Amino acid sequence: MIFWKGIITGLILSLPFGPVGIYCMEKAMIEGEKKAYVSALGMVTVDIIYGIISFLFISRVESYVIKFETPLKVLISVFLIFVGSKKFFGKPKVKEVEDDNYTLVQDYFETFLLAIFNISSILVIAGIYTLLGILDSPIREMTVLELGTGIGIGGASLWFTTIFLIYHFKKKVTMDILLKLSKLSGLIILIFGIATIIFAFYK
């Protein structure tokens, strides 16, 4: 069960609602799907790392989480609503893509480093865990492995599909469409935050 919840987490985290996501999609149109997909895997790797860290940390302070469960859920929900609203109503600053001579390894680490400094994604992960009930699972090596594998498969699958479609329909895809995709992803995060806050009071 934790494996499938990990896949759902990976899918949500890989929604292209940020500047790095748009950068990878634009990279598919300019430099090809292989370089774009390897770049996207850099972000997915960060999601796996932060996903595991979040699970281990929150599980270690479980007694405090249980004690302040509702306030924490509300706080996380407010953050998700803020992030979703900012992405939906704002205009992301996208790094311009130029046809460079980077190797695939350089492409991977470029987006890895861009994503690793987005510490706020940990709170997004915490919100997802709260809604999916992942924190109810006991800490075991197998649990952590299943969760990390699920996040990786979910994220890699969504980015493979996204980049495949962007590349093969690149003649019809414009920056305006990419920005609309970003806004749609932001809207999904916004709805997710609202659902989380409703779930917090309902439970």
TrEMBL record:
Ranges that cross the membrane: 6-25, 37-58, 64-83, 112-135, 147-169, 181-202
Protein name per the record: Translocator protein, LysE family
One record GO biological process: amino acid transport
Topology versus the membrane: Multi-pass membrane protein
One GO CC term, this protein: plasma membrane
Lineage of the species this protein comes from: Bacteria, Fusobacteriati, Fusobacteriota, Fusobacteriia, Fusobacteriales
Pfam family, one: LysE
Superkingdom: Bacteria
Compartments in which it is found: Cell membrane
Protein's organism: Cetobacterium somerae ATCC BAA-474
Family matches, as InterPro entries: LeuE-type
Keywords annotated in UniProt: Cell membrane, Membrane, Transmembrane, Transmembrane helix
Main location: membrane
